[in-house]
Specification:
Blueprint (H helix, E strand, L loop, with lengths): L4 E3 L1 H8 L5 H12 L5 E4 H15 L1 H13 L2 E4 L3 H13 L4 H12 L3 E4 L12 E4 L9
Parallel strand pairs: 1-2, 1-4, 2-3, 4-5
Helix pairs in contact: 1-2, 3-4, 3-6, 5-6
Length: 141
């Protein structure tokens, strides 16, 4: 089985909106459907997608986006004391958002490759394995 994958909110949005990098996320989801890998995501990702879609597009589009995402072959990780502790350590040591601290903690928990578009994750070094998707404007340097 291939390595575990963790999708950040930005990767999920890339797939939902058919942005640059969508094909990479799609390939991960297909491999998960075929049982060749596991795809994970944090509750923080689900929350971010819900509130951003609600703010930008309203309740009807939010319901559609959530239904799509919940149909994907993703193992969702919710909080527990250990995950909260790991996220707190990440947040205390690095200039990342609260949500990104939970996403990174999830990736560390499953020893997964974090797929994202968020340059904020660049501040986290060490055991966090990452793959940055191309930005909306083109490939990253």
């Amino acid at each position: 089985m291939a390595e575990a994958i963790v999708l950040d909110t930005s990767a999920c949005v890339a797939f939902l909106e058919n942005e640059a990098g969508a094909e990479i996320v799609e390939a991960c989801l297909l491999e998960a459907r075929l049982g060749q890998t596991t795809v994970h995501a944090s509750f923080a990702t689900l929350t971010e997608i819900e509130y951003v879609t609600m703010q930008e597009r309203g309740a009807a589009d939010t319901a559609i986006a959530l239904a799509k995402i919940k149909a994907w072959p993703i193992q969702w990780h919710h909080t527990d004391d250990a995950l909260c502790g790991e996220a707190a350590k990440i947040k205390a040591a690095h200039a990342v958002s609260f949500a990104d601290a939970f996403v990174a903690a999830t990736a560390l928990r499953v020893n997964g490759l974090l797929i994202h578009k968020d340059p904020e994750f660049g501040a986290i070094r060490g055991n966090l394995r990452q793959r940055m998707l191309p930005s909306k404007t083109g490939p990253n340097p």
